[in-house]
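Structure (tokenized):
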């Protein structure tokens, strides 16, 4: 049975039985791997005296029937590398981190390595753990994910006619911005402001990030086939000021 040793971020954690957990890990060298860890929750006789938590970052040893197997890998060792306790000090940091984990879990394939995305996600979690700008960091992470999975929309010109002025809408199906001349013929679309376009292009660092988060989330929801669960928590109207 092949054994794998890798760095990993816990994207998802489910209690499986009294003593076991199922975790979805995002590993640096092997991509997303679903694994079972037995004997997690019971006291000191086990290897995992304290359970493995969502968003933990650690060094894992996994055994799998064979690489790329669709069955669950066995998590045989876990050593925590970083303690990102700051993530849990402010609720929006946690929401932003959970959102980043959720979209990564949804939009990457099992055993499909994305080392650069691993680094981006890790840096997002580290920065979020002492940052006051969760939405800016979330936007950065959305862009890194879209780039990494090859679904980055086109933000430089109209995807339909190539015009670079009068860009007023975004279409997920068309994969980018649409100008006001082409917009009337487009059913699936969302309005975008100039400020939002500047942020998604990386041209603005101090703009409000709500619009950029919104349009990237719209595209991500389209790719996922559903709205990310955490999205509404990051943009709830009464919290908007705090988040932004
Ligand atoms: Zn156009």
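Design, position by position:
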């Amino acid at each position: 049975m092949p054994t794998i040793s890798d760095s990993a971020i816990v994207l998802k954690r489910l209690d499986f039985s009294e003593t076991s957990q199922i975790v979805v890990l995002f590993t640096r060298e092997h991509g997303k791997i679903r694994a079972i860890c037995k004997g997690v929750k019971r006291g000191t006789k086990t290897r995992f005296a304290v359970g493995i938590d969502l968003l933990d970052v650690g060094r894992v040893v996994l055994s799998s029937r064979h690489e790329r197997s669709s069955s669950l890998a066995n998590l045989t060792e876990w050593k925590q590398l970083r303690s990102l306790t700051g993530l849990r000090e402010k609720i929006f940091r946690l929401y932003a981190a959970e959102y980043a984990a959720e979209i990564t879990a949804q939009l990457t394939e099992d055993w499909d390595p994305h080392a650069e995305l691993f680094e981006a996600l890790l840096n997002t979690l580290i920065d979020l753990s002492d940052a006051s700008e969760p939405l800016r960091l979330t936007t950065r992470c959305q862009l890194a994910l879209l780039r990494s999975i090859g679904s980055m929309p086109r933000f430089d010109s109209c995807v339909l006619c190539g015009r670079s002025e009068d860009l007023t809408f975004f279409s997920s199906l068309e994969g980018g911005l649409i100008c006001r001349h082409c917009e009337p013929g487009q059913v699936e679309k969302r309005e975008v402001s100039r400020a939002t376009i500047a942020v998604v292009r990386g041209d603005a660092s101090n703009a409000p990030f709500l619009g950029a988060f919104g349009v990237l989330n719209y595209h991500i929801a389209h790719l996922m086939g559903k709205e990310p669960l955490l999205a509404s928590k990051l943009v709830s109207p009464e919290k908007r000021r705090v988040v932004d």
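Reviewer-requested clarification: Confidence is low (pLDDT under 50) at residues 42-46, 240-244. Residues 167 and 179 are 4 Å apart (CA to CA).
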